[in-house]
Amino acid sequence: MTVTAQRTGTASVPVPPPGEAAAGRIRLEHISLRYGPASPAAPSVLQDIGLKLAGDEFICVLGPSGCGKSSLLNLIAGYIQPTEGRIVIDGAEHSAPDTKVGVVFQHANLFPWLSVARNVEFGLKMAGMPKAERRRKAAAYLELVGLASAASMYPHQLSGGMKQRAAIARTLAADPSIILMDEPFSALDALTRESMQTHVGEIWKKTGKCILFITHDVDEALLLGRRILLLHPSPGRIVEDFANPLHEEGTIPLRSSREFAELREWLIGRIADGAPAGAARQGLAGRADAMPFAGPSSGQEPSRS
């Protein structure tokens, strides 16, 4: 793959050229998933999921508990196999974990006996990359996530946000086609969470990676997602797939804006539509039949400004 370089101080990180990044590189074709006995009568976790992801999109996946968000992530990661359908990444069928897919989990899972730099280098070392090259690469990504000064520190010396930034640098260093983030900020305090949301948005702009971000937080999805998928359960299925109109002009959404409040309320209502009947719905279902204001279709290229 031909790449250009994004400068970060004295180091550089690879960035795919615009034409390649915009191509539809990840496809989910008629994906269904059932756990338990191999029988058509078994309950479906996901049913007939069809999805195309461009190489440089930031997609947030929302939905009530039990709608299959984590199962969708595990399928794309290659940790589990679909009952029906297939996943294609960069033109090849994807059925097992490999370097095309990077995952950032809820917890950083850093090796406590290794420094931050050595944690970032670890996967590169296992892949046989020469020491000088992997150290240059680790330094570049640590600089990108704002941890250059912490390279020699150990995990116990880091804050929660710093640990997650180190985990993101480790994932980026493997140069995956897509990065999956499974509620990576859920264990952080509110202020650190907001700071990390800003960091991830900037990293996405600089690297041109496709990010699929799982979250249960509507505000987080609106702040980060240039494209938003909403899943409903029983069985899990995509009921909304739209380009986030709050990012239409390339600006950072303001929580205090009328547009943010209206879209937030609409999404909460749509999530409640898919929740079980009773108290869980909290009287929110059906509060919005259509999006409060129009945005671009999900087929348009996301703004990177």
Characterise the protein shown here:
The chain has a 6-stranded mixed sheet, with helices on both faces. Strands 4-3-6-7 form a 4-stranded antiparallel sheet, covered by helices on one side. A two-stranded antiparallel ribbon has the order 1-2. It has 8 helices and 12 strands. The chain is globular, with a radius of gyration of 19 Å. With 305 residues, the protein is an alpha/beta fold. It folds into 2 domains: 229 residues, 3-Layer(aba) Sandwich (Rossmann fold); 64 residues, no CATH class.
Can you lay out the helices and strands and say which pair or pack?
Blueprint: E1 4-8, E2 11-15, H1 18-22, E3 24-34, E4 44-54, E5 58-62, H2 69-77, E6 84-89, E7 92-93, E8 101-104, H3 116-126, H4 131-144, H5 160-173, E9 178-182, H6 190-207, E10 210-214, H7 218-224, E11 227-232, E12 237-243, H8 258-273
Parallel strand pairs: 5-10, 5-11, 8-9, 9-10
Antiparallel strand pairs: 1-2, 3-4, 3-6, 6-7, 11-12
Return the string of H and E elements: EEHEEEHEEEHHHEHEHEEH
Helix content: 25-40%
Q: Rg, please?
A: 19 Å
* Mean of pLDDT: 82
Tell me the number of strands. Answer: 12
**Known CATH architecture of the largest domain:** 3-Layer(aba) Sandwich
Going across the major beta sheet, what is the strand order?
Answer: 8-9-10-5-11-12
Secondary structure tally, helices: 8
Low-confidence stretches: 1-5, 16-24, 277-288, 295-305
Please report the distance between the alpha carbons of the first and last residues: 24 Å
Structural class: alpha/beta
Give the full name of the CATH homologous superfamily of the largest domain: P-loop containing nucleotide triphosphate hydrolases
Summarize the main sheet.
Answer: 6 strands, mixed
Q: How many structural domains in the coordinates?
A: 2
